[in-house]
Amino acid sequence: MCLINFHYADHPNYKLIVVANRDEEYGRPSKQAHFWDDEPMILAGRDLLQMGTWLGVSKNGKFAAITNFRDPSEPPRPKSRGEIVTQFLTGNKTTLQFIEELQTKRESYGGYNVLLYDGQQFHHYNNRLDEVNKISPGTHSLSNYSLNTPWPKVVKGTNHLQQLVEQNQGEIDAEPLFNLLSDQTIAPDKDLPNTGVGLELERQLSSLFIKLPNYGTRTSTVLLINHDNSITFIERTYEKGQFQFDTKFEFSMEQR
Q: Which of 73, 144, 160, 174 lies in the 20 to 30 Å Cα band around 128?
């Protein structure tokens, strides 16, 4: 997952609006969003290599999503980051309790950012910086450094989502949100970060939607959690940058 734009606690209809792209190698096996057979509370896509996920929601309204912290010099770590989302969605810890647990094993995982929402609290945690942020009401974005880091795609995603929210104070149609995620515009060189991957790759990774020969945006997700506790989850699947199909779920949140 390389870009998560979200709007929180500042809309007449929605508690939470999430608009996200998952970027991954095309050859890595995964399954489209579904309620898992072995964890039926979870609605998420699934990485079939490590059996975790990059973004998901539970039937009782918890949400979690993870991105890598971009550092090409980092050595392999023993644990898969995708299990973090699964553990939070299936557990009974609050966001801060879960982060305290993550801090005790932060070196076991490659660098990551995780967003955790338990229906009452919303927090971000970065294990490389050991940084905890309470999410304030409004629009935010997360890519592969930390929360609201002013990379071009982060700034653009935040601004575009904020504009869409301000223009749509009633029900929000998913299609403009997906259009936001489909932007393939490369940022100017002067605005690019230097994350150690080289200038050409920095350029290719600077767009909201990525399309490279062997790597790019595999899925786009729109998640809407309404004030009446109804949930809409739409995942758009791509094959090497080409639209394939949408998978949509609508359900009412279960009481805990």
A: 160
